[in-house]
Write a structure and sequence with these properties.
elongated, mainly alpha, 173 residues, 0% strand, 10 helices
Length: 173
């Protein structure tokens, strides 16, 4: 889910939909922090670095890239980070890149989230959404794809609505 949200953020950023990009990245960041995976957070921060660069905040983008570079993460992300590094480094004053890199490398996950996720907190979306991962598999020799898809859609609707929770609570007493 984090990768999908991050890619959606990159697409929104590339097409000039900056507010949409922020929302995708912030949701991805909340999930990544919730699962406590620094490489996944780093992957999101590469996208956020691009967003900051587009907003003219090159120093913050450089710090974010420095933090993200400590983790191997996703192979595609390394190429994206290298491209972004060249662009940001070329736009900064001499010495500013090195200074931003030193700052970014010293940061810990909590500090990075606090620095770069602060606007997420101000908007009140720091509460990490709860997600239910559910896998459903079908034997397509027995069940056709269309009814299976309708079943999964209906199951999703029932779970999202909380159907049956109140009744179950009443039965438990």
């Amino acid at each position: 889910m984090v990768e999908t949200l991050t890619m959606s953020g990159r697409i929104a950023c590339a097409t000039g939909r900056i507010q949409d990009a922020k929302e995708f990245y912030h949701e991805a960041l909340a999930i990544a922090v919730n699962i406590q995976s620094e490489p996944v957070v780093a992957y999101v921060f590469i996208g956020l670095a691009e967003l900051l660069r587009r907003e003219g905040k090159e120093l913050q983008a450089a710090e974010m890239l420095a933090f993200a570079s400590r983790y191997s993460g996703f192979p595609d992300a390394r190429a994206e980070a290298a491209r972004l590094r060249r662009e940001i480094e070329a736009s900064l004053q001499p010495g500013a890149w090195n200074s931003a890199q030193e700052t970014g490398r010293r940061l810990h996950l909590e500090q990075v989230v606090e620095r770069f996720g602060a606007d997420v907190r101000r908007r009140g979306s720091h509460e990490i959404p709860e997600y239910l991962s559910l896998s459903v598999s079908f034997d397509y020799d027995l069940v056709d794809g269309a009814p299976a898809a309708r079943f999964v859609q209906r199951l999703k609707e029932l779970v999202e609505s909380g159907y049956g929770i109140e009744q179950a609570a009443e039965e438990r007493g």
